[in-house]
Amino acid sequence: xxxxxxxxxxxxxxxxxxxxxxxxxxxxxxxxxxxxxxxxxxxxxxxxxxxxxxxxxxxxxxxxxxxxxxxxxxxxxxxxxxxxxxxxxxxxxxxxxxxxxxxxxxxxxxxxxxxxxxxxxxxxxxxxxxxxxxxxxxxxxxxxxxxxxxxxxxxxxxxxxxxxxxxxxxxxxxxxxxxxxxxxxxxxxxxxxxxxxxxxxxxxxxxxxxxxxxxxxxxxxxxxxxxxxxxxxxxxxxxxxxxxxxxxxxxxxxxxxxxxxxxxxxxxxxxxxxxxxxxxxxxxxxxxxxxxxxxxxxxxxxxxxxxxxxxxxxxxxxxxxxxxxxxxxxxxxxxxxxxxxxxxxxxxxxxxxxxxxxxxxxxxxxxxxxxxxxxxxxxxxxxxxxxxxxxxxxxxxxxxxxxxxxxxxxxxxxxxxxxxx
Length: 421
Ligand code: PGA
Ligand code: ZN
Description:
Elements: E1 3-10, E2 16-24, E3 28-33, H1 61-75, H2 83-94, H3 104-122, H4 126-130, E4 139-140, E5 142-146, E6 159-163, H5 170-192, H6 212-225, E7 233-237, E8 244-245, E9 250-253, E10 256-258, H7 260-274, E11 276-280, H8 288-298, E12 301-304, H9 312-321, E13 326-329, H10 331-334, H11 337-349, E14 353-357, H12 367-375, E15 379-381, H13 388-404
Parallel strand pairs: 4-15, 7-11, 11-12, 12-13, 13-14, 14-15
Antiparallel strand pairs: 1-2, 2-3, 5-6, 6-7, 8-9, 9-10
Helix pairs in contact: 1-3, 2-3, 5-6, 7-8, 9-11, 12-13
Bound molecules: 2-phosphoglycolic acid and zinc ion.
Zinc ion binds near residues 305 and 328.
């Protein structure tokens, strides 16, 4: 490596984040941006923020300083090692279990930028460099109504999702999802007035409602109005940790309180009434037992995000206890590409599905699109099909589909079956 350099740039919320360049002789330059969550799980790797006055405390100059200091000192002047060796070195240099010394944001920036540089050396796009058999485009889990910490409305569930299983390609999936989004905008304007067209952090509408049943009803109406009945399934990210009261063991939902059993009953109703086929974080992030009960009772895809935090150790506990049957896969939750790939591999071996995911605080970097195709995960969650930081991912998928040509597969209604890679 001839140069490893970090800089502070802005994410889609206008908050600072880390961008890293890894340069090799040639010169070859791999660049990556680090995303950031807002409804984070408490078991995630530690993102380093400066605190103080600058950027309201959100500055990342300390993390950038570690990239340009300790980390660059250890890496520059040596040949680029394998991804696995590099990531092990980064973990060792940090020396803490949660990457809190140098910052998971500093470490991940180098890990991903190095992966891009290695792909360039190999002369391959990143997805093909990581998997020579990569050919499956993911079905998008398109988040059209935002709530929870991502919106200023009264919806407690964070994401109300449409899944275009009836499309034949990623481009058609985006076309029909966008048509539904346009129809949804018309319905919201008619019913609640202009205020309902405000949007949340992931670009979905944030209407002034508080009832999750009403939100799911709106998605169904929008699908009908767009003329695409039967071509969509539905999903939720409940991000339930954020309204769980650990003192009482109850959830504060839609103005009332529900026990774990009460939540499970509600989910069973939504599954029955609305063709909901996937639910993420339905219960508190440490309630492995409740997750196991719902997984067994519901028979649908139950996804662990805050529950697993892309951490192989937490995932192993989940597998042992039958908690959830799907891993939400966010590389910045664990902090290196290799550890994230380990978590995905463990999930797939245990018969869990993998949903590749963005963060609410994204940048224009579309790396997760390549990673989703490399994994053959069959599912990606990257917000509404609007705004540059979300469309960057969708547009990258369109480009990848074009590169793959006839060999590209869009899995449609078998999106829960991961490909062999
Ligand atoms: P976050 O939200 O990036 O704010 O954590 C995304 C999610 O919960 O899936
Ligand atoms: Zn989530």
